[in-house]
Design brief:
Elements: H1 24-30, H2 36-44, H3 62-69, H4 80-84, H5 103-106, E1 107-112, E2 115-120, E3 123-124, H6 125-128, H7 130-136, E4 147-148, H8 150-156, H9 159-164
Antiparallel strand pairs: 1-2, 3-4
Length: 175
């Protein structure tokens, strides 16, 4: 048995006590995405928020920690959620991928060797990281999910691309 704690394997989120949301305030501050006053207050309250709240939030004042973390939806700026909601957490140098599509909106048809076939464009986090399906459950009908790889699925399911790649005998869709 190997102890892999501290090693990065594929996805950078390998230890939920340190990765993703607990580390994001420092990352956001060091990328100059949030003001020092927000970062300092968050830290002075010892706030800790976990991805999708799979662990309870903690801090000296949970209500204030939540105000500092969550999107307010009140049209005011000032929380981590407000100031970073349009960012791609996986790569701060890239825009967000096509976010907010339901399974119905992702369903597309294409022709494969003269046969119309259906596929879902892109991949959701639940699909690319199966443990999230265990944590979050199945998507509800109509639920919009963060969707990656939209361009790749459209490209590889394009009949002209499949012909150019000599996939004339391929009998399915790429997903």
């Amino acid at each position: 048995m190997y102890n892999l704690k501290g090693f990065m394997v594929g996805n950078g989120a390998t230890d939920w006590d340190f990765d993703v949301s607990p580390s994001f305030p420092s990352i956001a501050y060091n990328f100059n995405l949030v003001p020092k006053s927000l970062y300092d207050e968050y830290n002075s309250l010892e706030c800790v928020v976990y991805f999708n709240d799979f662990k309870p939030r903690s801090g000296k004042n949970i209500t204030r920690c939540s105000e500092l973390w969550d999107e307010t939806d009140l049209g005011t700026s000032g929380s981590f959620g407000d100031l970073t909601k349009d960012l791609n957490w996986y790569d701060l140098y890239r825009p967000k991928y096509g976010e907010g599509l339901s399974a119905e909106e992702r369903t597309v048809t294409t022709m494969v060797n003269g046969v119309e076939m259906t596929y879902k464009k892109g991949r959701t986090l639940r699909e690319s990281s199966p443990f999230l399906k265990t944590l979050l459950g199945e998507a509800k009908p109509g639920e919009k999910e963060y969707t990656m790889d939209l361009n790749a699925s459209a490209y590889f399911n394009d009949p002209a691309v499949q012909t150019a790649m000599h996939l004339d005998t391929f009998n399915g869709t790429w997903s």
